[in-house]
């Protein structure tokens, strides 16, 4: 194969900020350009296309994920022992409804969790942690998520995005020795990126740090919003703007990540935020006034803060879908019991088709969520540096959206009792089923740690990357015409070979067979649909050109198709593996029925997304939205008590 046959993947471990930018930002507004350049510079590159990324290029490559990676006996036993003790604490020492009602986690519970090592699950034993695997950590998040979202958030914000994770990834030996034993023992940590004007767009950051004249410290000033664990933390990771770097005569903004001791003079928690759910979240607004931070507390390097934040989140955001799996399982348990028990119109409600349909979707989607999450986690366990950006983003986006659908359906199945609080149910003598709390706690999952909209853009950016690498230069008005022509010739040669292949079912013939016929059928479907997806995406690029980047709803459809394909694959591989296992607890025919049902439901969603590519209301919808924004439909808002304008 020559270089033109293999589309380049990222920049082969070259840091993106040293690589040539592949997106032409010359026609963008200043704000858009700043945001894009900053995130592009922090983008990680990879030197191998993952299974998830390959789906957008019509590649169906199961290397490394088939057979479904199972935990080693040793790792599983370690996980089981920890989970048993964690479950005992949850069951015997915690009352999630009381935590919800009081808005406080009792100190005794935190102490128990600290003694168990729950604050250092992934931290290596060398630094006083438990040294458990990512899979075991995700299993712990599932257990926690099934019981108490406040505890899940406490543990997860501490070690998935708080100080431990970036330290494990980027810390120097000295930093690890200093901080990891503290956080492993239970000193709580947090992650502070968001500000009043910085939600999804870090370029708008105001918090800043300037070096002292001797260069030994930085002086930190600013305010961080919604910092989970911030009101209890001893140490936090803070993102701040540091003096810009001048490159080719242009000033480039820099963001740096600092480890900040919360007892440093000048650090204040000025407000504890309260929310619709997660009532006992220790979340606050933190103000920094002339806080002296030693230079040695910089994570990775000056100017690499966004890379630290994004990379931390890549693996860190796997905990969230794991928590969602736990919650979904709990919803299934509650719904199954109630649908059997509750008799209306002469039959258990689970026998009425409208409710049965919900139960089936709940079971199939929960199984899929778990399969996707375990698959992504196993990739981290195999290789600490595995590129799981897409896998984790797909798990987060799909898992949090499915979790919301599941808890919503569970509430419908429980009827009026679903809407009643657990404490009220208990007070009048019924079982204290906490669906109302689960629903309130679940809603935030599609918003934080990368909102669904931002996840779709993130995944779409990665989906387009091979094409940008191949043909981006052709359309880049900043480049001399000779370079653009050269790039056009290379791109034409590449596509002349790549495109016809997307019509040939080679992968279905050679790569997706073997094993049980049921599973082979699903694999062939994924391979075939991946080629269809790659063609559709390519056609969209030709049709829209550089403007495709703005077609968020359209891009979202491609992202959703690939995510469904990823879900079918993960589910199919896991079911196949479960059937081979000696410890299987589900009958073969039942497992196959579940797999087939999930695949059918997923295929229907995929079909709708493909249909939507050509038959949609995107254009007129955007037009109406513009009119709404311009106040053209003020009459629709008439007849109401108006909020303050
Ligand atoms: C309970 C809670 C806990 C949190 N914990 C932490 C924490 O520990 N640390 C921390 O740093 N932050 C934390 N956050 C902040 C959280 O990560 C942000 O809320 C999230 O990033 C979204 O930012 P925003 O709310 O400002 O929304 P915005 O960025 O203002 O977005 C508003 C809406 O617009 C959409 N949107 C934004 N940009 C685009 C775009 N370009 N294209 C399409 N749609 C877009 C978003 O998806 C969203 O739907 C927390 C927030 C909450 C509520």
In short:
With 645 residues, this protein is an alpha+beta fold. It has helices at residues 30-42, 51-55, 73-93, 96-102, 107-116, 134-147, 149-161, 164-170, 173-185, 305-316, 319-341, 353-382, 389-414, 416-419, 422-427, 435-442, 452-471, 481-501, 506-510, 517-544, 552-580, 588-614, 618-629; strands at residues 189-192, 208-211, 217-228, 235-247, 250-261, 267-272, 283-294, 298-299, 343-344, 347-348.
Overview of the structural elements:
This protein has 645 residues and is an alpha+beta fold. It has 23 helices and ten strands. The protein has helices spanning 30-42, 51-55, 73-93, 96-102, 107-116, 134-147, 149-161, 164-170, 173-185, 305-316, 319-341, 353-382, 389-414, 416-419, 422-427, 435-442, 452-471, 481-501, 506-510, 517-544, 552-580, 588-614, 618-629, and strands spanning 189-192, 208-211, 217-228, 235-247, 250-261, 267-272, 283-294, 298-299, 343-344, 347-348. The chain has a four-stranded mixed β-sheet. It has a four-stranded antiparallel β-sheet with strand order 2-3-7-6, covered by helices on one side. Strands 9-10 form a two-stranded antiparallel sheet. β9 and β10 form a beta hairpin. It is globular. The termini are far apart. The chain binds flavin-adenine dinucleotide. Flavin-adenine dinucleotide is lined by residues 157, 190-194, 199-200, 226-228, 275, 278, 281, 283, 444, 447-448, 451, 453-454, 457, 552.
């Amino acid at each position: 194969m020559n270089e033109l046959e293999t589309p380049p993947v990222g920049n082969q471990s070259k840091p993106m900020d040293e690589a040539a930018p592949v997106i032409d930002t010359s026609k963008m507004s200043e704000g858009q350009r700043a945001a894009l350049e900053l995130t592009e510079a922090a983008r990680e590159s990879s030197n191998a296309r993952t299974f998830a990324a390959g789906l957008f290029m019509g590649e169906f490559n199961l290397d490394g994920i088939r057979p479904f990676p199972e935990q080693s006996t040793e790792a599983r036993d370690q996980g089981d022992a920890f989970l048993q003790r964690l479950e005992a604490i949850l069951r015997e020492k915690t009352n999630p409804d009381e935590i919800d009602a009081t808005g406080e986690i009792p100190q005794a519970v935190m102490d128990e969790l600290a003694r168990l090592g729950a604050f250092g699950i992934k931290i290596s034993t060398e630094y006083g942690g438990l040294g458990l695997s990512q899979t075991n950590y995700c299993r712990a998040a599932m257990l926690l998520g099934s019981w108490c979202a406040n505890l899940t958030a406490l543990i997860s914000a501490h070690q998935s995005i708080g100080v431990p994770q970036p330290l494990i990834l980027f810390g120097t030996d000295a930093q690890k020795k200093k901080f990891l034993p503290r956080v492993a023992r239970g000193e709580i940590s947090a992650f502070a990126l968001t500000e009043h004007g910085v939600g999804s767009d870090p370029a708008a950051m105001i918090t800043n740090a300037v070096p002292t004249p001797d260069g030994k410290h930085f002086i930190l000033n600013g305010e961080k919003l919604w910092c989970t664990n911030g009101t209890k933390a001893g140490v936090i990771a803070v993102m701040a703007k540091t003096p810009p770097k001048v490159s080719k005569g242009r000033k480039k903004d820099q963001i740096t990540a600092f480890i900040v001791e919360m007892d440093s003079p000048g650090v204040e928690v000025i407000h504890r935020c309260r929310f619709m759910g997660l009532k006992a979240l220790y979340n606050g607004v933190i103000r920094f006034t002339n806080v002296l931070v030693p230079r040695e507390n910089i994570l990775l390097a000056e100017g690499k803060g966004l890379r630290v934040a994004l990379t931390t989140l890549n693996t860190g955001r796997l905990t969230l879908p794991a928590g969602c799996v736990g919650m979904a399982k709990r919803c299934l348990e509650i719904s199954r019991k109630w649908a059997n028990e509750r008799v209306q119109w002469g039959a258990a409600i689970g026998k009425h088709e409208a409710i049965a349909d919900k139960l089936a979707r709940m079971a199939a989607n929960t199984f899929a969520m778990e399969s996707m999450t375990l698959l992504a986690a196993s990739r981290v366990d195999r290789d600490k540096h595995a590129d799981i950006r897409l896998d984790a983003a797909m798990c987060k986006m799909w898992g949090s959206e499915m979790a919301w659908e599941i808890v919503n359906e569970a509430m419908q199945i429980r009827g009026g009792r679903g809407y009643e609080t657990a404490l009220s149910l208990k007070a009048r003598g019924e079982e204290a089923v906490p669906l109302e709390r689960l629903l309130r706690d679940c809603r935030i999952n599609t918003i934080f740690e990368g909102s669904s909209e931002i996840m779709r853009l993130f995944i779409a950016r990665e989906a387009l990357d091979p094409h940008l690498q191949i043909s981006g230069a052709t359309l880049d008005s900043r480049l001399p015409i000779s370079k653009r022509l050269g790039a056009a010739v290379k791109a034409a040669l590449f596509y002349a070979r790549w495109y016809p292949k997307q019509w040939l079912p080679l992968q279905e013939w050679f790569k997706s067979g073997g094993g049980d016929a049921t599973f082979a059928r699903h694999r062939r479907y994924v391979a075939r649909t991946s080629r269809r997806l790659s063609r559709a995406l390519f056609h969209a690029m030709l049709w829209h050109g550089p403007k495709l980047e703005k077609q968020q709803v359209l891009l979202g459809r491609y992202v959703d198709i690939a995510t469904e394909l990823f879900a079918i694959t993960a589910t199919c591989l896991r079911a196949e593996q479960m059937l081979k296992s000696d410890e299987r607890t589900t009958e073969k025919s039942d497992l196959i029925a579940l797999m087939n049902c999930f695949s059918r439901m997923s295929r229907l969603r995929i079909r709708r997304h493909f249909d939507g590519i050509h038959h949609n209301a995107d254009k007129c919808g955007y037009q109406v939205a513009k009119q709404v924004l311009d106040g053209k439909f003020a009459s629709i808002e008439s007849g109401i008590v108006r909020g303050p304008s």
